[in-house]
Structure formats: C-alpha cells, structure tokens
Amino acid sequence: MRSRACSVKLSLTQRLTLFFTVVAAMVVLGLGGLFLVETGRHFVELDRMALQDKQHLIEEILRNASSADDARRRLGEALSYHHDLYAQVQDGQGAVVFQSRGFIPTMRGDKPLRAGENKVFGVLRHGDARFHTLVFRAYPAYSSTPLMVWIAADTDHHMQFLDGLRRSLVLYVLVAIAICGLLSWLAARQGLAPLRDMKSRAAKVTGQKLGERMPVQVVPVEMADLAQELNRMLDRLQEDFQRLTDFASDLAHELRTPISNLLTQTQVALATKRDAATYRDILASNAEEFQRLARMVSDMLFLAKTERGVDLPHKERFSAHQDALALLDFYEAVAEEKHIRLRVEGAGEIEGDRLMFRRAVSNLLSNALRYTPEAGDITI
Fold first, then answer.
1. Looking at the structure, do residues 291 and 165 belong to the same domain, yes or no?
2. For residues 122 and 263, what is the distance between their CA atoms, to the nearest angstrom?
3. 21-52 pLDDT tens trace
4. Which of 141, 158, 180 is the last residue of a domain?
C-alpha cells in the first residue's frame, strides 16, 4: 500500500492547484490569526482606557468628598450603573470605605503596589470569568492618608465577541480555501491550455501527416522555445522519413529486375527436363544475378549510411594501378571464357576509401564483362 501511494504522480494542473491552495490557505489563516490577535489587543486597550477613566472619576470624587460617608455616597451614585465594573476602596488601616455590588476579595489580585508605583494593571481569572484589573493610590481631601483602590472590568462580553468572531473566521477560512482551490484549478487549467493544444497537435502527427507543426505564434512566451524545438524535431523527422521512403522506393525499383530475371530463368528451367550442363549454366546465371543483388544491396546500404552521416569512408593513400590489377586477376577467368582482353593503363595514387574504390571498379568491370561482345577489349 505504501509503495502504491508513493508511486502516485500528480498532474501539473493538480500540482499547481495544490500549491496555490496551500499558499492561499496560509495567507488566509495568517490574516485571520492576525485579525484575532489585533482585535484582542484592541479590546485590552479599550479596557485599560475604561479603567483609567474610572480611575480619574474616583480620584475626582475623593478630592471633592468632605468625609468618608460623603465619598461612599458619591462613589455609589457614580458606579451603580456600571454592571460590568467592580470597585473597592480601603483606607490605610484596611477598612472598606466603598465596595460595589458583586466585588469579591479575589478581584484585588496578587499584584500589590510596590514602593514608588502609583498604579498597576493586571489580568485576573476567577473560574470561567476573566477580568482586567487596576490598583492605584488615591488621595482624598478629607484625609492625609492615601486610600487603596481596586477596579476590575469584566471582559466576558469581549470574550463572547471574540469566540463568535473566531467561529465566523473558521467558517470564512474554510470557504475561502475552497474558493481559492477552485479558482486555482481554473487558472491552472486555463494557463495550461496551450500545452494541451500542443499535445493534441502532436497526437495528429503520423507517418501520413508529418506536416503538422506546433503553433509558435499563439503559445505563451515561456513555451515558444519548446514549440520551436518540437517543430525543428518534426522537420528532421520528416526529412528522415522522406529519405527512408525514397530509399525503400529505390530499393524496390532496383531489386525488381534481377528478381524477375531469377524467377523467369527458374520457371523456364523447371518447365522441361534438361541435361546437367544446362542446369549448370542456369545456376551459374542465377549465381551471377545473386552477386549482382548482393552488390546492389551493399551499395544502397552504404549510400543510405553516408546520407545519414553514419559509417563514413575511411581515407587512405593507395595505388590505383595495383588495386586495378588485383581486380583484373579476379575477373580474368570470366574474361577468358568470352575471350575478352583486360588491361590497365596509366598509374597514380588516390587518397580515399580503398574498399569503396574496389567496389566501384568491380561494378564497372562486372557490367563491362556482361555487355562486351566476345573477343572484345576492356581497358581501365
């Protein structure tokens, strides 16, 4: 199972879709997370500003109060309508001067004021509730001893808003990722349309339709070089295929006559009974035709290889006179049967392929012996 999973290959469209979807998901998740963090910070800053406003209000009330009872009355009137705000005021001996409804001792937190500090912000958790707190010293007009003031702001409404926002963002992120995936697939498919067009054109290339070419002018710039190289490759293939077709046609044309001669001679020989000498002559004629066929096939294969740049001739310097004499010795027996005289005139050296030279001269001698009448002369 593992090897099968590893062997699965994704198409280019699927890879691009997956890549764009992952990138879009990371961007959307990052923006959503950043939005949540910044919203939370904004609410914290709002709570701090609200606590500072209440600090200024309490300090103003204490500066104008004529006694502790007057301060208690004024604080009660000022803070009674703030249901999400809790406060407690103590004098220097720890006696409670004022305490709003719902205030509990744990709201004082565990961060007392240190020497030289006027106020301290903090965060307090009480069960499932979460509070932002502020503790500071206030100086009333009716006493020379400073008072300790604790203020706690309930953040439940903020947390409920953030929870709802978080759920909405999760839904939004999922929908956004799905939409981005769909758009990525459409964009990748549209962007790869020229590649599919090239594929369809390449599928039309057959042995009978080698003239099909890639559309260089309409493909994107990134694919133009590929299209040009494919067209050059098709040009080379068309040339090679045409060369192969011509070679096959020439080969069939050249082989038709000797094969027809062999077939005719064999059929004539088989038509009636003949003596051994006649059969020997027919076999000798057939052998000559077979030699001609062998030379013809060898020559055509050599020409085909030379045109393709394969098996190029090996150049060397040799005596044309000596090689011609060697060939005359080879054909001397055939020439004597027809009373033909063979001779070589002149001398010289040739720089080339000795084997090809001998093959060319051998072909000339073979044709000359075939068509020269008896008692004739053949001069090289």
1. no
2. 115
3. 999 899 999 999 999 999 989 988 888 898 88
4. 180
